[in-house]
Automatic annotation (TrEMBL):
<feature type="compositionally biased region" description="Basic and acidic residues">
    <location>
        <begin position="132"/>
        <end position="152"/>
    </location>
</feature>
<dbReference type="InterPro" id="IPR017930">
    <property type="entry name" value="Myb_dom"/>
</dbReference>
<feature type="region of interest" description="Disordered">
    <location>
        <begin position="196"/>
        <end position="216"/>
    </location>
</feature>
<feature type="domain" description="HTH myb-type">
    <location>
        <begin position="9"/>
        <end position="61"/>
    </location>
</feature>
<dbReference type="GO" id="GO:0000976">
    <property type="term" value="F:transcription cis-regulatory region binding"/>
</dbReference>
<feature type="region of interest" description="Disordered">
    <location>
        <begin position="129"/>
        <end position="175"/>
    </location>
</feature>
<dbReference type="InterPro" id="IPR001005">
    <property type="entry name" value="SANT/Myb"/>
</dbReference>
<feature type="domain" description="HTH myb-type">
    <location>
        <begin position="62"/>
        <end position="116"/>
    </location>
</feature>
<feature type="compositionally biased region" description="Low complexity">
    <location>
        <begin position="204"/>
        <end position="216"/>
    </location>
</feature>
<keyword id="KW-0677">Repeat</keyword>
<dbReference type="Pfam" id="PF00249">
    <property type="entry name" value="Myb_DNA-binding"/>
</dbReference>
<feature type="compositionally biased region" description="Basic and acidic residues">
    <location>
        <begin position="165"/>
        <end position="175"/>
    </location>
</feature>
<dbReference type="InterPro" id="IPR009057">
    <property type="entry name" value="Homeodomain-like_sf"/>
</dbReference>
<dbReference type="InterPro" id="IPR015495">
    <property type="entry name" value="Myb_TF_plants"/>
</dbReference>
<keyword id="KW-0805">Transcription regulation</keyword>
<keyword id="KW-0238">DNA-binding</keyword>
<dbReference type="GO" id="GO:0006355">
    <property type="term" value="P:regulation of DNA-templated transcription"/>
</dbReference>
Length: 275
DNA sequence: AATAGCAGCAACCGCTATCGA
DNA sequence: ATCGATAGCGGTTGCTGCTAT
């Protein structure tokens, strides 16, 4: 009958992942591919539940992820798709290669909502906010003050399409798999190699925040270097080259065809850095 | 310089659809 | 056909760093 219970949560670690845990998970998935998540923590030597491992992998460790803020184009895509699909973040994410549902959801809640409100658009309905509503939402007035500091004028024009967009979500809240731009929402768009290209984390000029996610990966790599026995073979290395080389040295075949994180790419000749 | 408040993001929680015995 | 486990999804929380006072 059925399957084994997912995981008893007794003794399992929670909270932020350490670089060591990340490395274990990356190594395991590179070696075995994405198989039964329930078995992953045990096999990888992690005190996490499978769910946590899956989340960490899909939202953070996957090599095909883009890091950093969404571009203006991506933002516009999110808004347009949200107008049609609602809060179906995974569907929206499937249209934006290298972006995760969690990332898009966060960006929506922290950036896009504010921008739309500032433009007088209700982020829920994508309809213009009435002036009456505005007066009854003092927190939005406060919000505007904040937004005024960061709002870029050209962004406003890029969002105009949401004003005139047909609102399928309102008329058909459960509308599924709307065809947009010629492909089904269930299809994950093929990623072009250039789409996975992430600039090296050079000393940041665009962001003053040290916690900027675009730099997070290099911080992770720096942490990795501190592990006993962990040697960086390159001056300017990337973790995926390293891990791939590591596995190759052991003679461990990588399952590229099924669920390898580098699925679809010729790993021996990647012309770009994954991180 | 200290600190309170805010913003951003990673991770967790709980629900549901799907799958397998 | 049924029941229970799993994977995936969306909502929410909590931590960390930044900014304003």
């Amino acid at each position: 009958m059925g399957r084994q219970p997912c995981c008893d949560k007794v003794g399992l670690k929670k909270g932020p992942w350490t670089a060591e845990e990340d490395k274990k998970l990356i190594n395991f998935i590179l070696t075995n591919g994405q198989c039964c998540w329930r078995a992953v923590p045990k096999l990888a030597g992690l005190l996490r539940c499978g769910k946590s491992c899956r989340l960490r992998w899909t939202n953070y460790l996957r090599p095909d992820l883009k890091r950093g803020l969404l571009s203006e184009f991506e933002e516009k895509m999110v808004i347009d798709l949200h107008a049609q699909l609602g809060n179906r973040w995974s569907k929206i994410a499937s249209r934006l290669p290298g972006r995760t549902d969690n990332e898009i959801k966060n960006h929506w809640n922290t950036h896009i909502k504010k921008k739309l409100r500032k433009m007088g658009i209700d982020p829920l309905t994508h309809k213009p906010l009435s002036t009456a509503e505005e007066h009854h939402r003092p927190q939005q007035q406060d919000q505007k003050k904040q937004d005024d500091k960061t709002m870029e004028p050209e962004t406003s024009s890029s969002l105009n399409s949401t004003m005139s967009k047909p609102k399928e979500e309102e008329d058909h809240p459960m509308v599924k798999d709307v065809d947009i731009n010629g492909f089904c929402t269930d299809e994950v768009p093929l990623m072009e190699p250039h789409e996975t290209l992430v600039p090296n984390c050079a000393p940041s000029t665009s962001s003053s925040s040290p916690s900027s996610s675009s730099c997070h990966s290099s911080m992770f790599l720096e942490e990795l270097q501190q592990f006993p026995g962990f040697e960086c073979p390159f001056d300017d290395f990337n973790i995926w080259d390293l891990l791939i080389n590591e596995e190759s040295d052991k003679g461990i075949p990588l399952d590229h065809s099924l669920s390898s994180p580098l699925m679809g790419f010729d790993q021996g000749s990647l012309p770009y850095e994954l991180f």
